[in-house]
Amino acid sequence: MVEAYPPSESSASSSNNSENGRDDAWLQADQDDGDDFGEQETVQVISLLDDKVFDDAVAMIKYCKDKYRFDFLAIRDNLGLDFYGQVKLINYVRQNVHEGREVKGESITAKDLEDDGLLKPVLEDDALILCLDELPAPGAQEKKDGKAVAGADGEAPAVDQLLQKNAQLQEELERLAQQFNNYRLAVQKTLDERWGEDDTKAAESSKAKGAVSGDEGEEGKKKGPEEATWYFESYAHNDIHETMLKDTIRTEAYRDFIYNNKNLFAGKTVLDIGCGTGILSMFCAKAGAARVLAVDNSNILDKARENIFNNGLDGVITCIKGKIEEVTLPVDKVDIIVSEWMGYCLLYEAMLPSVLFARDRYLKPDGLLVPSHTSMWIAPVSDEEYVTENMSFWRDVYGFDMKAMQEGTYTNARIEHMPTDAVCGTGTGFRMLDLHTCTPEDLVFTEKWQTTLSDKVESLDGFLVWFDTFFAEDRNEKIDASLTWKEWADAGRERVAFTTGPFFKQTHWKQGLLLVDKSKAKDIKVTPGQKLSGEIQYAIPEGHHRGLNIKVTWGAEGEEKQSQMWLCH
Amino acid sequence: MAGAMDIEAAETRLKQLDHSEQHYFNSYNHHGIHEEMLKDEVRTRSYMRSIIDNKHIFKDKVVLDVGCGTGILSMFAAKAGAKHVIGVDMSTIIFKAREIVEVNGFSDKITLIQGKMEEIELPFEKVDIIISEWMGYFLLYESMLDTVLYARDKYLNKDGLIFPDKATIFVAGIEDGDYKEDKIGFWDNVYGFDYSPLKATALSEPLVDTVEMKAVVTDPTAVLTLDLYTCTTADLAFSCPFDLRAQRDDYIHALVAWFDIDFTACHKPIRFSTGPHTKYTHWKQTVFYLQDVLMVKSGEKIECSLHNRPNEKNKRDLDIKIEYRLDTPDPNRQAEGTCLYKMC
């Protein structure tokens, strides 16, 4: 792009204008400067938008702002233009005016000013360019405006205005991104058919990727914890999305709820947080949503955009890249938030706080969260075969003692889908999260649990943790923690809910298996029919905010309890 | 026991690495991967036999174990009578290895050093034998071969030995219609939506999975042979034209690649293969789906070429190109294509 205007061309045109060679023109300018000092100090600034002439730049800019609502300083500050950027802006405006096109300040974007050819002055000896350093510094103007407004009507309208402007710009950017993407797709399709280009394409895409991840690296540095970057990068690959999409329990639950409740979605504005490949957004669009905002901070969003375009839904769905806490949405409020935020043991990966943030910031007071409720369950496990298979291995590895490797098996939650008959007692639904009302503080808790052991119990090998997910059509629905997904879904008319538990088909979440470290735990006698009780605690480990610590205490009723802690990370 | 300070220092060093490098080393910090590797009997037994059954080679030798992990190969070497073994690994798994070496009574025979081979200092100027299990998927993906070659050039005695010392990549054509449909065709219709952009990605990502012998339609052909004594990192970028001859009338949906590993210094050479014709290994095989489905008749040849180079940005990733041409008298079966793959 830079090469589009080779220096020779611009020098050629400037020499045309000045009838001297380039070097002479420079000499001339120097001489002129000398002359200026002697003869006159006044400058003549020609208006950006018409022929009027002013004595100084500030007056001209004020005139343009008042008469044409063209705010040079605001554009400069919005786009963060440096000296050259301002020169380009001036020439861009002058060029358009010169060619008789209307110039609207609010529609000028950084992209418009990318062309280095714009450094070439449209007006010879443009006094405005020479006066740029006399203009008020960025921020000064804002303060002034802020004061004026504050004096009249408080500060709120100014902030609102800025936010609105910001949203407008964001939307504009998104529109351009989409346009560019469509263009890119068209180009790519042409290229795909021509094998000869493939090498270049690979080189280009690797370059593009480099640039993107470079940005992310920098962001990671800025934002502190590198795990954030990793978290989002880990979702940039296909296989994780393939796994999630092929998890039919998960995906079909969302699909069924959305398609069975088209009345809820028709004409509504929906926000999809962590949209991934865009599947939930497309369900919502198909169900009649007027507008869907699909937000994700992973590079998978580029694929989502293509998917949405290929399915002809780009008119309804707007993709926005970024963290939900940081992006500015083009709307103030949404009717529905849909998100698939659940992690292992429900809360591992800690995406829920972002959803709650978005709920508080964007959801209308009567808006709906999809899903609406999640509950957490615990049950005791007895599976001798599993334990021996996994533990005895380290005792003798090709003749060596490797018990040192066992450590993690008891300190980490294992993600396994356990057979139904490994569960050796009744389960407890220990926590129900009503997503419309819960707060981040509700995600750190201690709850009571209990079980009545069944005849499957041989020894108490550990505990299994899983969650149920509910899709209520009404935000006022109350669901008791002890109600299973099935009891709720089957009651009365058909409703959508699913479980990740051991009594139904496997999901990609499997269950969290917490193995009791029998070298440390007190061996308690277990018999069928016996009752155990205790507490379960969810906490966030220090320095690892996407991790999860689960502590369980247990013991026979009325007897002393023991406890163990497991980490998810 | 590893001091908490050591672990902390190691973790600080890890954090200073590039993201991709960090990920690479961190992924080896988890137990699961070591469990999988140790439980891979083909792999571990081959190393065990090539070391323990060759005590005459290891006796009183100084041995360097590159990427020692849990220390299993170092302990094999110590058991085989090595004078001293130095195990080097960047991953913090090495602190577990220290515990393991201690409980097995090898602390005086084995020195474990946490760090990058290129940055650490060895207690010996030269070593007699290098042992290493450096192989990645498709032999070269995320492989440690460059580190082994660095260690060879810097530390190995002139007449020193390398275990293993030869590696060969093979390729064959396979009939894989059902699985291709499941992995690639899936993206054509995802809950009623066109997901073809992800199909393109899926096609460009070689699939690490097991292939049944009966799926193999052509003779296998070697596309790369590495002699560990002489090869250089430049050899890891290679191009190889080759022919695949069909053994029967069938369809070909993909090429499958695997590798064989040789310990030729042994009294009786030991070799193991990761191919579809033999026992499972954790490396499985690597499947490259083709754009076309080729219809081949017994005895026909598919002209192919495979080009591999480490990715410029992350040298542990691979950029792979496969070209194929089926020239038949029947114009309907003529096929020609080029596929680009990225292992990352």
TrEMBL record, chain A:
Compartment list: Cytoplasm, Cytosol; Nucleus
Domain Methyltransferase as annotated: residue spans: 270-367
A single cellular component GO annotation: nucleus
SUPFAM superfamilies: beta-beta-alpha zinc fingers, S-adenosyl-L-methionine-dependent methyltransferases
Enzyme class: transferase
Protein arginine N-methyltransferase 3-like C2H2 zinc finger domain boundaries: 77-121
Catalytic activity: L-arginyl-[protein] + 2 S-adenosyl-L-methionine = N(omega),N(omega)-dimethyl-L-arginyl-[protein] + 2 S-adenosyl-L-homocysteine + 2 H(+); L-arginyl-[protein] + S-adenosyl-L-methionine = N(omega)-methyl-L-arginyl-[protein] + S-adenosyl-L-homocysteine + H(+)
Alphabetical list of InterPro entries matching this protein: ANM3-like_C2H2_Zf, Arg_MeTrfase, Methyltransf_25, PRMT_dom, SAM-dependent_MTases_sf, Znf_C2H2_sf
Residue span(s) of domain Protein arginine N-methyltransferase: 374-557
Skewed-composition ranges (Low complexity): 8-19
Keyword Coiled coil: yes
Coiled-coil spans in chain: 159-193
Positions with biased composition (Basic and acidic residues): 196-207
Protein's UniProt name: type I protein arginine methyltransferase
Organism: Cladorrhinum samala
Top-level taxonomy: Eukaryota, Fungi, Dikarya, Ascomycota, Pezizomycotina
Automatic annotation (TrEMBL), chain B:
An example Gene Ontology biological process: methylation
Stretches of the chain forming a coiled coil according to its record: none
Domain of life of the source: Eukaryota
Any GO CC annotation of this UniProt entry: nucleus
GO molecular function, one term: histone methyltransferase activity
Pfam family, one: Methyltransf_31
Keyword Transit peptide: no
Protein name per Swiss-Prot or TrEMBL: HNRNP arginine N-methyltransferase
Species name: Cladorrhinum samala
Taxonomic classification: Eukaryota, Fungi, Dikarya, Ascomycota, Pezizomycotina
